[in-house]
């Protein structure tokens, strides 16, 4: 049996981080994923898919993902149900992610300021992927082929 989903889309809001009574981190967010076709008016429509992450991945997502950021999610589809306050059965469909990739660096995280040595420096507020789109300075002598 196989239950595997890969999605690429943009966050519709900042992730919401909570902790279970046992102290396990859980983050939820919604990913807007474009459909591969246009409607009769020529506009693209999107599906809004609920994503759940757990433990360390949940804390990483809460710290680095923001509304509008392009993100890839890999995980499994989960359908659960519960009884609400009115006694009605509610069904929830969500993706439980086990891998999340940040596909673009946040420009709002960059700040210029004065370093301790008196020179200008650029800080990236704890974002390890801030320079992902930057070109790499490498000479042809360093290439193995």
Overview of this protein structure:
It is a single chain. Strands 1-3-4-6-5 form a 5-stranded mixed barrel. Strands 7-8 form a two-stranded antiparallel ribbon. It is mainly beta. It has one helix at 55-64, and strands at 5-11, 16-19, 25-38, 44-54, 70-83, 89-102, 110-114, 120-124. It starts with a strand and ends in a 21-residue tail after the last strand. The protein contains 1 helix and 8 strands, in the order ββββαββββ. A hairpin with a 5-residue loop joins strand 3 and strand 4 (44-54). It has a domain at 5-102: Beta Barrel (OB fold (Dihydrolipoamide Acetyltransferase, E2P)), CATH 2.40.50. 12% of the residues are buried.
Q: What's this, in brief?
A:
This protein is mainly beta and 145 residues long. It has one helix and eight strands; from the N terminus they run E-E-E-E-H-E-E-E-E.
Secondary-structure-based class equals mainly beta
CATH homologous superfamily classification of the domain at 5-102: Nucleic acid-binding proteins
> Which CATH first-tier class of the domain at 5-102 would you pick?
Mainly Beta
- Strand order in the largest sheet: 1-3-4-6-5
Q: Could you tell me the radius of gyration in angstroms?
A: 20 Å
CATH architectural category of the domain at 5-102: Beta Barrel
Ends: how far apart? Answer: 42 Å
What is the CATH third-level topology name of the domain at 5-102? Answer: OB fold (Dihydrolipoamide Acetyltransferase, E2P)
Helix segment count?
A: 1
Could you say which overall geometry the principal axes of the C-alpha atoms support?
globular
Overall mean pLDDT stands at 82
Order of helices and strands: EEEEHEEEE
Task: Report strand %.
Answer: over 45%
